[in-house]
Fold each of these.
Amino acid sequence: MKTRKTPLRMCLGCGEMKPKRELIRVVRRPDETIALDATGKMSGRGAYICPSAECLTRAQKGRRLEKTFSCRIEDEVYTHLQQMLTEAGADE
């Protein structure tokens, strides 16, 4: 039986290629809103970030989400991402 390839995605914070399942997906929906996609199946343009506070900080400082989506990202999106990291215990 053939083994399936693991899909890899690049983290906007550190730039490393990692398995898709290990990353957090941020989506720009067709109605131009930004959302966090826990399922990985939401329609729209997706970008990925490692579940670490350091990568989130790098992505925010470099405005990498804004460049990827070509739109302004509200602070509440970053706040929500930070809360997800804190709940997961990755904020060290």
Amino acid sequence: MDQKFYDAVESNPVIAAVKDFEGLDRCCQVEDIKVVFILFGDVCSIDGIVRKIHESGKIAMVHMDLIVGLSSKEISVDFIKNNTYADGIISTKPTLIKRGGELGLYTVLRFFVLDSRALRNVEMMDHQYAGVRPDFIEVLPGVMPKIIRRICKTSKIPVIAGGLISDKEDVMGALSAGAISVSSTNQNVWFL
């Protein structure tokens, strides 16, 4: 794992996840925000979004699954690296995370833990996804301290809690359970 990325996530335990231009503008004005998860855009606008984040001195992470016009093929990761100069990617697709790592991008593998089977997939990640070593895993929803604690105990990869984080209690619950940080689109959480 790249130490710069780890330090940026650890130094401010709240990651701004932006889903529109309003959120983008606001997070770029907040000095304490070091990392931005981009959850919107399309192939025509993503380079400008990344540029704005870089101009504000922040790390830009593109959620590959949410950018309109990108396919789920590895070549999309090459496009993001070569045409937007994003720092990294987020995806639920291990093949994209693997390609991002090969290209030297920061990577976050996102898991939706909706039932015991999904939880088992997270816990068995090292065995199920050979060759895939994300910098972080993101667990959604992030308001499950008991489950986050269980994942943190079994995972060799640092955990980010995301989804449904809406107040200080949610943030503290996730961090107390072992998550290194939380990601949230809720702008009030960015200022906790």
Amino acid sequence: MLVDHHCHLDFPDFSDDLAGVVARAGAAGVGLMVTISTRIRAFDQVLAVANQFDNVFCSVGTHPHNAHEELDIPVEEIVRLSANPKVVAIGEAGLDFHYDHSSPDAQEQGFRNHIAAARETGLPLEIHARSADEQTIAILEDELKSGGAFPAILHCFTGGKKMAYRAVDLGFTVSFSGIVSFKGAPELREIAAELPLDAILVETDAPYLAPVPFRGKTNEPAYVAHTAKAVAEARKIEVEALAAATTNNFFKLFKKVPRSAFASVEGA
């Protein structure tokens, strides 16, 4: 079975058929989902979704687009909220210089706050990085040097080879979304083929970025199976081997998720 460690089930796209979305994921072999927070002040909505399903968990954090809105929320509050049994990750946080909805300074401060929370809690940080390869790596290197290790995933990876290899060298995980299946993403498939198998994950980022053959439609966790297929093909391995490896990688990172939640779906 597979895991979708990064989706947004609280978004309006799923409000009319949330139970159906989760059921279709299970039917497609996706046993666990983590629905990702984009605003701490809307965390209750994310948690409410996770609480509806035994195999759905969540994160707590502020997307870089919204960083300027929540700089007044201290690290201690993120840590406090993360104590909920359903919260298994921090973020998503990071840098997005493609849209610049928040200033670079606000994004960096938010990013570093979330790194501090990940370090304190031991929960993996879901990192959003777009058009900010060098700056993201520089902050990660600085934080490792100044504060010590923390677990993290470069989610929905679209950066270059240099960033991917450096992230793995630093001990982080790289995650691939449906973009890896797009015709115009040969370099991304090459990266997915070359990185160590124990350093990768797959995800949807639903409702965005549906993989081929659903490109242009609303993405949902069930479609992570197609992303896994694309990565397996790039690596020239069976999709079952890719699923087993990425699921194992998930549990190594997301230590708070009980394996029993996955087992119950497998046995359903």
